[in-house]
Amino acid sequence: MSTRSLRSGIVLLAVGAVALAGCASSAAPQPAATYDPDAEVTISVDGMPAADQPEQLKAFNDRVDKFEAEYPNITIEGSENGWNTSTFAAQLAGGTLPTTVAVPYTEIANIIRNGQAADITDYLDDQSLEVDQLNPALLTIAQDDDGRTYGVPKEAYSMTVFYNRDLYEQAGLDPETPPTTWDEVRENAEKITKATGVAGFSIPTTANHGGWMLTAMSYGMGSTLEDLDGKKVTATVDNDATAEALQLISDMQWKDGTFAKNFLLKYEEVAAEFAAGKVAQFVGMGSSYTFNQFVRVNGMDSDAIGMGVLPQTKDGLGTLGGGAIQIISPKATPNQIAAALKWISFTTFNQYFHEDVAVTGAKAAAAAGNVIGAPSTPIVSDEVYDQYLGWIGDYINIDRDHFQSFFDERDAQPVLPEPKVAAQQIYATLDAAIQSVLTDENADIDAILKDAQSQAESLIASEG
């Protein structure tokens, strides 16, 4: 079975990110000053669970204890503060942002441009990180047009279609054959609803998650929502592909009766509906996070989960990709930058390079009820990831054969980046667009997109 990463597609994603990073003058490089790897140093790190999550907090503290035992000169202070679009700049200016924090791919170009992340290029020969064995295209996402590096990949995903294998069987559909076109998605939804009474399709429509999914559907139907021409970013929200996606949603709601009636939901809530067998198909992140939402959080039998590449029309461009980049505060001292990279390596990458760490982590994750071996986009090289899967083979608790079609097709599907300017704000306008067509049978899609285009143009202009 193939476990290759998204070679061709991720390269496209990376190129898009790098191109935009060069759309404005990047922050001046911050060459590494001399640092002392044995110096006493304290850093703050994101990801500390709140006190009302005692099990997760204990696991976090245990990890801190192990790290500090290995690096006794480094003191870790956990922080509940993490990425927040509205507070990031203020936290950075006020000194409350952790030394290291994960940020979305959508934000990294602007963060680099605005000088809001430390230039870590000259620290990356630290052997604890083993950078040469990371997925090289993902590492490129955090670089500017001069090749300077401002972060390392923490996680990656691409949008896929999830479907309930049990409901497929009940409707006479082959669970080994995911839909590859939007016509098939619609046809399968009709068959499932007719045979089982279950909603054949859904996507979230709130918390900016609807716009996020509509963007992915637009890619699959032939258009992006922003165009980059040299150094100019132009909104392209009002396009035929997005209109086609909204029309499909409208038709499934009003003509077919197959769209979920409970639709004012965010991503995790739609995942819960899917896990409960109330939704047969939906667009979602192909990631361990989503699989754990299904299985660990909502108790779904993993054997019922099907996943295929994002369906396409004849004009489809590919799928949407994203994830998180771990950056380091530009206010960090050289010793803190070096220490933060050790923390990043310890918490994110050690499992891929050390068999004992991989096995220990997989054993603990399995005991906690997590899905082990779920299909996802590796942040390390193909060879390293294959080796990792071999190490943890005894703890893989999902049948990867169920996703053979996905493994066979994913390398051939291009992966494109999310909108790079005002993405979340544009997603919010598209939440409203989806809600409009789901609540009004006579919604004017052309007018809706014209209004969304105007809003997107203003949002991009406000970003400079």
The structural domain count equals 2
User: What would CATH call the homologous superfamily of the largest domain?
Assistant: Periplasmic binding protein-like II
**What is the radius of gyration computed over CA atoms, rounded to a whole number of angstroms?**
22 Å
The succession of helices and strands, N to C, reads HEHEHEHHEHHHEEHHEHEEHHHHEHH
How is this structure best described in words?
InterPro entries: Bact_solute-bd_prot1, SBP. This is Extracellular solute-binding protein. Pfam families: SBP_bac_1 (PF01547). Residues 1-27 form the signal peptide. Keywords: Signal. By secondary structure, the protein is an alpha+beta fold. The protein has two domains: 7-156 and 321-402, Periplasmic binding protein-like II (D-Maltodextrin-Binding Protein, domain 2); 159-320 and 411-459, D-Maltodextrin-Binding Protein, domain 2. It is 44% helix and 13% strand. It is built from 17 helices and ten strands. The strands form three sheets. Strands 3, 4, 7, 8, 9 and 10 form a six-stranded mixed sheet that branches. The chain has a two-stranded parallel ribbon with strand order 1-2. Helix 2 (54-70) links the parallel strand 1 and strand 2 (74-78). Helix 8 packs across helix 16 and helix 9 packs parallel to helix 16. The N and C termini lie far apart (47 Å).
Which helices and strands appear, and what pairs or packs with what?
Layout: H1 7-21, E1 41-45, H2 54-70, E2 74-78, H3 88-94, E3 100-104, H4 105-113, H5 136-140, E4 152-164, H6 165-170, H7 182-196, H8 209-221, E5 226-229, E6 232-235, H9 240-254, H10 267-275, E7 281-285, H11 288-297, E8 305-309, E9 319-328, H12 334-353, H13 355-367, H14 382-391, H15 404-410, E10 415-417, H16 423-439, H17 445-462
Parallel strand pairs: 1-2, 9-10
Antiparallel strand pairs: 3-9, 4-7, 4-8, 4-9, 5-6
Helix pairs in contact: 1-4, 8-9, 8-16, 9-16, 10-11, 12-13, 16-17
Signal peptide: 1-27
InterPro entries: Bact_solute-bd_prot1, SBP
Protein name: Extracellular solute-binding protein
